[in-house]
Design a protein that fits this description.
This protein has two helices and 31 strands. By secondary structure, the chain is mainly beta. Strand 30 and strand 31 form a beta hairpin. The chain is elongated, with a radius of gyration of 23 Å. It starts with 5 loop residues before the first helix and ends in a 55-residue tail after the last strand. The C terminus is likely disordered.
Length: 389
């Protein structure tokens, strides 16, 4: 599938959300194409208030007899009710948009995804009320062995709305998207034994609340991981992981046993980098060879407040710049970005791990003295951390 610009995905999801007024809206028989034609979108993506839709193409009332619910064409579908063994499967055309409104819905799947988007142009999930998606016994779907998450999509997904969604994966991931994922609203709670969110392309969060408890990564994206705003709490082995990570705003709390924020070469489409331009970020690390921020490329801090507690605050292989903002390491503000040269590993992804400081060398927050650590010209200059206001 041709990769889409994530901003276009965000715009499409926003329009879909504005077209819905909530669970109480009456059902209408008019087609999605008719309603979209009537919707006037200006160059600034403003919606004509008179065109806002108050209906759906179909209302799906879930029950324990639902089994597999098949959606085979684009449209707006309201899902409500409860099923203890169900999969909502989307098999629409590759140019068709499917919108699912979860209105106080509970979907439990014993062996597959609760929502499986096999084919569509894009999928919009709008949250209204309090909904639950679960997989209780792991993923063993004979029709598609790739399925490994409670929400599994082979196309772009946008999640929005004002409701809440609780996702539980006893043995697997919370959300897997083969393309890109946008979260632009709603309150999401994810408890997964593997990754909370795993995206093969780009991840973008612009608003909403996201709480993730994961056995592995809280949020993983192969290419770009961008946080524009929102309230995020991550508890896992690693908090954020992608090739390129950009944080512009938001409140972020990360409790990690490995790296809090990790930029590593997962894709050749972009450079390896961590860039922080704003936000209130708190990172608490477990004991051992762990890093608050680990970049196998560059690390740039232009703004925001970053508070890191742990043995190693930062580890980077490229250039580091502290151009603004506030960086606090173990309770003390610093005017430079320390480089611990711990964690990572001389591995295929270019990390340095295993390269811990020499015996008797500096502790956390301190630079290497001349003759210790790396030689001049090989990364950090002797005797001092890199960066500075």
């Amino acid at each position: 599938m041709k990769r889409k610009n994530i901003l276009n995905i965000f715009a499409a999801g926003t329009i879909a959300a504005l077209m819905i007024t909530g669970c109480t809206a009456s059902h209408t028989e008019s087609s999605v194409s008719d309603r979209v034609t009537d919707t006037v979108v200006s160059a600034e993506n403003e919606i004509d208030e008179e065109s806002v839709v108050s209906g759906y193409d179909e209302v799906i009332e879930l029950s324990n007899d639902s089994g597999t619910v098949s959606i085979t064409e684009g449209g707006i579908y309201l899902l409500t009710g409860s099923s203890e063994d169900c999969t909502v499967r989307i098999d629409a055309g590759e140019d068709e948009s499917v919108t699912l409104i979860l209105c106080d819905a509970k979907i439990v799947s014993s062996s597959s995804a609760a929502i499986y988007a096999r084919s569509a142009g894009d999928v919009n999930i709008i949250l209204d009320g309090e909904s639950v998606l679960m997989n209780e016994e792991g993923f063993n779907d004979p029709e598609d062995e790739e399925i490994d998450a409670v929400i599994y999509s082979k196309t772009d997904v946008t999640i929005s709305g004002e409701g809440s969604l609780n996702i539980t994966a006893a043995d697997g991931k919370g959300i897997t998207v083969n393309d890109s994922l946008v979260i632009s609203g709603g309150n999401l709670d994810i408890d997964a034994s593997d990754d909370g969110i795993n995206v093969n392309e780009d991840f973008l969060m612009s608003s909403g609340t996201l709480n993730v408890k994961a056995g592995d990564d809280g949020i993983h994206a192969d290419v770009n991981l961008t946080i524009e705003d929102g309230d995020i709490t991550l508890d896992g082995a690693e908090g954020l992981e992608a090739t390129n990570i950009v944080i512009n705003d938001g409140k972020i709390l990360i409790n990690a046993s490995d790296d809090g924020i990790n930029a590593a070469q997962k894709s050749d489409e972009t450079d390896v980098k961590v860039e922080i331009n704003g936000g209130d970020i708190t990172i608490v690390m477990g004991e051992g060879d762990t890093d608050g921020i680990d970049s196998n490329g560059d690390l740039v801090i232009n703004g925001g407040k970053i508070d890191i507690t742990g043995q190693s605050a930062c580890d980077y292989d490229g250039m580091a710049e502290l151009n603004g903002g506030t960086l606090i390491v173990n309770g003390e503000e610093t005017d430079a970005i320390p480089n611990q040269f711990m964690g990572g590993g001389f591995g295929s992804e270019g990390g340095f791990g295993g390269a811990s400081r020499p015996e008797g060398g500096p502790g956390p927050g301190e630079g290497f003295a001349p003759g210790e650590g790396f030689m001049p010209g090989e990364g950090q200059a002797p005797g001092e951390p890199v960066g500075g206001k």
